[in-house]
Amino acid sequence: MERIQKLIEYLAASPADSFLKHALALEYIKLGDESRARALFEEILEADPMYIGSYYHLAKLLERTGETDLAIAWYEKGMEAARKAGDQHAYGELRSALEELTF
């Protein structure tokens, strides 16, 4: 909880910081609070669609909660963002996760 509290404090000072929101979302996942994590990932990607790492984590979360179609859509959006950014590593991870889910 101490880590979460620190991240919340940092976000109060920098509310638009995608890195801090992403880190906080990951902490919520560790606690099993997937609804808070999901809200943060969605907030990040709405404001900063090129924050590519959040696509993977949001899609994985959606897989765990049984929202397969939505997970597929987020993997595909992430792949497109990674392609635009020239991030072949992220593209490959997203593609692999999508293939695991759909095959």
Describe the structure.
- The chain has 103 residues and is an all-alpha fold.
- The chain has a single domain, classed as Serine Threonine Protein Phosphatase 5, Tetratricopeptide repeat (Alpha Horseshoe), CATH 1.25.40.
- It is built from 6 helices and no strands.
- The chain has helices at residues 2-13, 18-31, 34-47, 53-64, 68-85, 88-102.
- Helix 5 packs antiparallel against helix 6.
- The longest helix is centred in the last third of the chain and has 18 residues, at 68-85.
- The chain is globular, with a radius of gyration of 14 Å.
- The model has no long low-confidence stretch (mean pLDDT 97).
Describe the structure in brief.
83% of the residues lie in helices and 0% in strands. The chain is an all-alpha fold and 103 residues long.
Question: Mind sketching the topology for me?
Answer:
Elements: H1 2-13, H2 18-31, H3 34-47, H4 53-64, H5 68-85, H6 88-102
Helix pairs in contact: 1-2, 2-3, 3-4, 4-5, 4-6, 5-6
